[in-house]
């Protein structure tokens, strides 16, 4: 089994609970296909630089999980046409990015960096 990272941008108009139900659904799906979820990072709401499908912002989620290659395609196919999802990207997990904490990921997405 390989380790993967999936980042989802959810349509805030389509989810009521800031994506918590989606997160639980995704975790259950990965477990059902025989994978294991390592980490789920809710990265919060973020304004887009440009509108995407007439939307100005979205809710970001980062999932790190292990699964077989052919099973990852099932995950992509399931969520490809889901109306709750504005964008999604799945790629092999880079161990070097493991040193980035969840708080840092949130800062990178939200732009709350103190540096000028």
Question: How does the major sheet shape up?
Answer: 4 strands, antiparallel
From the coordinates shown, what is the CATH architecture? 2-Layer Sandwich
Q: Mind telling me the CATH superfamily name?
A: Ribosomal protein S6/Translation elongation factor EF1B
* Unreliable sequence segments: none
Total strand segments = 4
Overall SS class: alpha+beta
**Assigned CATH class:** Alpha Beta
Number of helices: 3
Q: Note the quaternary state here.
A: single chain
Strand/helix succession: EHEEHEH
Walk me through this protein's architecture.
Strand 2 and strand 3 (55-67) form a beta hairpin. Strands 2-3-1-4 form a four-stranded antiparallel sheet. 29% of the residues lie in helices and 41% in strands. By secondary structure, the protein is an alpha+beta fold. The protein has one domain: Alpha-Beta Plaits (2-Layer Sandwich), CATH 3.30.70.60. It is built from three helices and four strands, in the order βαββαβα. The model has no long low-confidence stretch (mean pLDDT 85).
What are the salient characteristics of this protein?
116 residues; alpha+beta; Alpha-Beta Plaits; four-stranded antiparallel β-sheet; 3 helices; 4 strands; 29% helix; 41% strand
Give a short synopsis of this structure.
The protein has 116 residues and is α+β, with helices and mostly antiparallel strands. The chain is built from 3 helices and 4 strands, in the order βαββαβα.
